[in-house]
Structure formats: structure tokens, C-alpha cells
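Translate sequence into C-alpha cells.
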Amino acid sequence: MQFDLFDATQNKILEAKTYAEFKEALAKSGCTRCALSESRRHIVVDRGNPDANVLMIGEAPGENEDLQAKAFVGRAGQLLDELMRQIGFDTNRESLIINVVKCRPPENRVPKQEEVDACRPFLKKQIELVKPRIILLLGAVALKHVISEKRDFSMEKEAGTFFEHQDFPGVKFMVLYHPAFILRDPRKKPAMVEHLKRFKAYWDQVR
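Result follows.
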């Protein structure tokens, strides 16, 4: 884990032994490691069940998430919940949902590299504490920042496929379209539904 000799607040967060301790420390930290702290209302840690074996990773909080301090509670999150409900999966009970960065970028823009880098120790700590068996990467931004060598790729080819990575032993990954993308382009919804069915079939076998 990446500790900073000059950042006692970050170190306290990263020293947490349980997920509950981590979440409380991060939420109350007043983190100022990047410029996103200047405009946020809340640090958005997660939504769902930290004891679940499925971890979903999105891009960044939006306006509703910033207001409620919960991940994926806006239109995209509601769509995700509904699509998951249709395959018999309860997102709040059977998964934990987090983001690559924990503070809302202005105007919901894509997070900058330096913002992702500032938040990376917290993302890594979440994965370490949750110990998921499956990680669902929601969208291209999550894919390229969690799997560092993924820089030039097509989401049409990546979405719906399972893979493993040496940096995350014992974890099965699947890339999914971000639900916000489905809202912008409903033509991709049937593909998303098929990908989710593929995920659920695998999950029913291994859980």
C-alpha cells in the first residue's frame, strides 16, 4: 500500500483494518489531494454491501451522488439497478459499487489523470479490503484506469467479456457499458442485457 510520510490523513485511511473503518476515515477526511476537493459537496465512497463478492467500479460521482454522498444514485444508477433487477441481482445486497475517483468532477467531465492518481491509493485499498471474486468495470474510463495497459481499445470488443489480470489474483473481471452511455445511446441496451445475463450465468455457477 502506498503511504505518504507527509500525509498523516491519508495514512490513517490506508491503515484501516476493516472496510467500515476505511469508509468512515475517508468520508470524514476532508481530503484535498486533488483539485476536485474545491468544488465537491461530499466525498462519495460507495453504495451497497462491502461484504459482497461482486465489486462494480465506475468512473466518478455525478451531481446526485455528490448531493447524497452515495455512488450511482442518479439516472445511470437507477438504470443499473433496474437492469440488474431484471436478471435477479440485487445491487445493494449482492454488490458494492464504487468509483475510480471519489469526488465529482465539474460538469461531470471525465476525471483527469492527476485526479485519478491522487485517488488511486483509496481505490486499491477498497479492492484489498473487499476481496471481490468478480469486478465489473463500468465503462471505458474504469477499464483504462484499473487495468493500466488498456489504453487503446474498442468497447464493442471489450464489453461482455471475462478476463483475469496478474495484478488481481483470484479475481474475474468483466467489462460492461457504463449505464450513462446506455442512456445516451439506447441502441446498446440489448447488448448490455446480454452481457449482464452472461455475468449472472457465471455468478450463479461460482457463488
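Note: The chain has a mean pLDDT of 94.
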